[in-house]
């Protein structure tokens, strides 16, 4: 995933027959809090509604340290709806 030509994170979405599954979303800490994740999730929610599909899932906490970053802030609130 890029923003203004810079790699800022990773997004993995699976388009399944009855759902759009957000398998993974990661944003580098330097790019969190700018609404990037929220915009992506809103877009997926809109797409799922338009296609009559579900957007299941909720964030999982990851241990601190190297590896994926957990969904936090506005992005987390969109996932938990």
- Secondary-structure element string: EEEEHH
What topology, given as strand order, has the largest sheet? Answer: 1-2
* Quaternary status: single chain
Low-confidence runs: 58-66, 73-81
| SS class | alpha+beta
Q: What is the typical, i.e. mean, pLDDT?
A: 77
Strand content: 15-25%
Helix content, binned percent: 25-40%
The main pleated sheet reads as: 2 strands, antiparallel
Compute the CA-based radius of gyration. 13 Å
Terminal residue distance: 24 Å
| Shape, per Cα inertia axes | elongated
Number of strands: 4
Number of helices: 2
Question: What can you see in these coordinates?
Answer:
- With 81 residues, this protein is an alpha+beta fold.
- The chain is 28% helix and 23% strand.
- The chain has a two-stranded antiparallel ribbon with strand order 1-2.
- The relative contact order is 0.21.
Concise structural overview:
Helix content is 28%, strand content 23%.
Question: What labels describe this entry?
Answer:
81 residues; alpha+beta; two-stranded antiparallel sheet; 28% helix; 23% strand
Task: List the topology elements.
Layout: E1 2-3, E2 6-7, E3 9-15, E4 20-27, H1 36-51, H2 73-79
Antiparallel strand pairs: 1-2, 3-4
Helix pairs in contact: 1-2
